[in-house]
Design goal:
heterodimer, A: mainly alpha, MetI-like fold, 14 helices, about 0% strand, globular, B: mainly alpha, two-stranded antiparallel ribbon, flat, MetI-like (chain A)
């Protein structure tokens, strides 16, 4: 293939720029990983050092000790987080893709209107709806239940949007031939459409999991019962604990990041494929 | 008219399977997104403290916001300052780095993607900036600068009301290569390679021309999607301000619209007033998003 090449100097500049930015992006991450393994005296050394000299696991054991001595046991927070994240991620992926299929492939009264409504709601942040949502939760008597977190996550907008954009690329002939074979729309969605958009729902798993796992705002709003609260919320309390807990807080941040990171690495190649079709088409 | 309704009903009945598939999602979507927006707009014209029934007060909340509430005006100013600087910067950073990364060999590309995307992956990790920007000599940045002899006294990065908003911008930029960054990387990869060959024949001379005349026009959908995500998130900044600088911040120097809403909604229980703040935020982001869409897609 014929393609214009950059000059050698151009290449060198690109490499230098990318490296400098990579260092800027990585430095805080490296620093927090290092901090998680630093003993207390190294954390407050002057002049401060980036790298750890005598690595220790004490911060992690401190963290577990701190959390096991709290009012609610550590395992309960972890269970809450895992339960909420898994159920809402699964629910969102299922229900959003179920709705995305007809929006992408069927023509029926209201389909354009409904999709435009979803695009419109992408345009403002979730904070806008928080107060009325809180009141609706209270009226539905869902406050202080897992449902108060799970149901809104399932009805989130990004997933429907991504799935619809991706499903539009499936050739109509696939769907037609399934219909001729006598499959109903539900079966077509499950056996024809879903396997063809595997990268899309893998991506969606990453985004949905990241958002639910990291969320501290909504749990703080809807949950008052300590035993219902997720890991993320418990960790912010530790992070606010000041100097004594600096090591434990760094350890906590690492633990918090790990699941999303693993999912990202597992899905990365697929993520890129999905995002090709993201975008707003009118 | 009657004929029309009958036809519509026929259409609806014919497509009942489609509606059946839509139902679960849209029940939740309407309950937790559409109805709250409508309820929020209605509540913004009332006084409501959750315990007593809402009382209609007309435009009073809005009048109070713009005429009496100095803190809100500070929040508005801060939010705009923040969004107008970080929004475009991070949008173009996403685009620029996606463009550069895209041309690298696959292995290096995936390592750099991970590295650039990692800060956006977890909200717990930005906490580390409190140590880097710590106002005493144990802060990494202060220690580093004092070691080099650039400064003699530690700088109160997060407490100094003249600079803390800018410190916040640095952290936001660090975290901002997120969803739109991935969308752009994917966008670059979908572009039809033969377009570049044709362009080279037609006299495109360098990479910049290639970017401007071929690459960008071919990925308009991703560009619009990225812009919307960017506008929405940069106007909704709150968490990093509250966690890094504190709430309320010194002299409200890092106060934002969302924090102001939070203050009245979850602390003072003035739901009507807080709803009016939410409506303003809603109007700002939707308005700017519509404007941005018009600029990127001029037709």
């Amino acid at each position: 293939m014929k393609r214009i090449n950059r000059s050698i100097w151009g290449n060198i500049i690109v490499i230098i720029v990318l490296t400098i930015v990579a260092i800027f992006m990585a430095l805080p991450l490296v620093y927090s990983i290092m901090n998680a393994f630093k003993p207390l005296d190294e954390l407050f050394l002057f002049p401060p050092r980036l790298f750890v000299r005598r690595p220790t696991l004490k911060n992690f054991t401190d963290l577990f000790y701190l959390m096991s001595n709290s009012f609610v046991p550590f395992s309960r927070y972890l269970f809450n987080s895992i339960f909420i994240s898994l159920v809402s991620t699964f629910g969102h992926v299922m229900i959003a893709s179920m709705a995305a299929y007809p929006l992408a492939k069927h023509r029926f009264p209201g389909s354009r209107f409904l999709f435009n409504l979803v695009v419109f709601s992408l345009m403002f942040s979730g904070y806008v709806t928080n107060i009325p949502r809180f009141i609706i939760m209270a009226k539905l008597r869902l406050l202080d239940t897992y449902f108060s977190l799970i149901l809104p996550y399932i009805g989130a907008t990004l997933g429907l949007f991504l799935m619809k954009q991706f499903m539009e690329q499936i050739p109509d002939s696939y769907i037609e031939s399934a219909r001729i074979d006598g499959a109903n729309e539900f079966k077509i969605w499950w056996y024809v459409v879903m396997p063809n958009v595997k990268p899309a729902w893998l991506t969606l798993i990453l985004f949905a999991f990241r958002d639910t796992w990291n969320d501290t705002y909504t749990p703080a709003l809807y949950l008052h019962n300590e035993a219902m609260k997720p890991f993320s919320l418990a960790l912010t309390y530790i992070q606010q604990g000041g100097f004594v807990r600096a090591g434990a807080a760094a350890a906590a941040a690492i633990l918090m990041m790990l699941p999303s990171l693993i999912i990202f690495i597992l899905t990365q190649s697929n993520v890129v494929e999905t995002m090709k079709s993201a975008g707003i088409k009118e | 008219m009657k004929e029309k309704i009958r036809n519509l009903w026929k259409e609806v009945k014919k497509n009942k399977e489609s509606y059946f598939l839509l139902l679960p999602y849209f029940i939740l979507f309407f309950t937790f997104v559409v109805i709250p927006v409508i309820v929020g707009i209605i509540l913004s014209f009332t006084n409501y403290n959750i315990i007593q029934a809402p009382r209609f007060v007309g435009w009073n909340n809005y009048k109070r916001l713009f005429l009496e509430d100095d803190v809100f005006l500070i929040a508005l100013q801060n939010t705009f300052k923040f969004a107008l600087i970080t929004g475009p910067l991070s949008y173009f950073a996403c685009l620029f780095f996606a463009w550069l990364i895209n041309e690298l060999p696959p292995k290096i590309r995936s390592v750099l993607t991970l590295l650039y995307y990692a800060p956006a992956l977890s909200s717990a990790i930005f906490f580390i900036w409190t140590y880097i920007f710590s106002g005493d000599v144990y802060g990494l940045l202060n220690g580093f600068l004092m070691n080099l002899g650039i400064i003699k006294e530690p700088i109160y990065w997060l407490q100094d009301s003249r600079i803390n908003l800018y410190v916040l911008m640095v952290v936001q930029l660090w975290m901002s290569l997120g969803t739109s960054f991935l969308a752009f990387i994917a966008g670059f990869q979908t572009i039809d390679r033969s377009l570049y060959e044709a362009a080279a024949v037609d006299g495109i001379r360098n990479r910049w021309q290639e970017l401007w005349y071929i690459t960008l026009p071919s990925m308009k959908p991703q560009l619009i999607f990225g812009a919307i995500m960017q506008v929405t998130s940069s106007f909704a900044v709150a968490d990093i301000s509250a966690q890094l600088i504190g709430f309320p911040s010194p002299l409200y120097s890092a106060h934002t619209i969302v924090l102001h809403m939070w203050d009245y909604g979850s602390i003072r229980y003035e739901m009507g007033y807080a709803s009016a703040i939410a409506v303003i935020l809603f109007l700002i982001t939707v308005g700017i998003n519509q404007g941005v869409r018009r600029i990127i897609r001029p037709d």
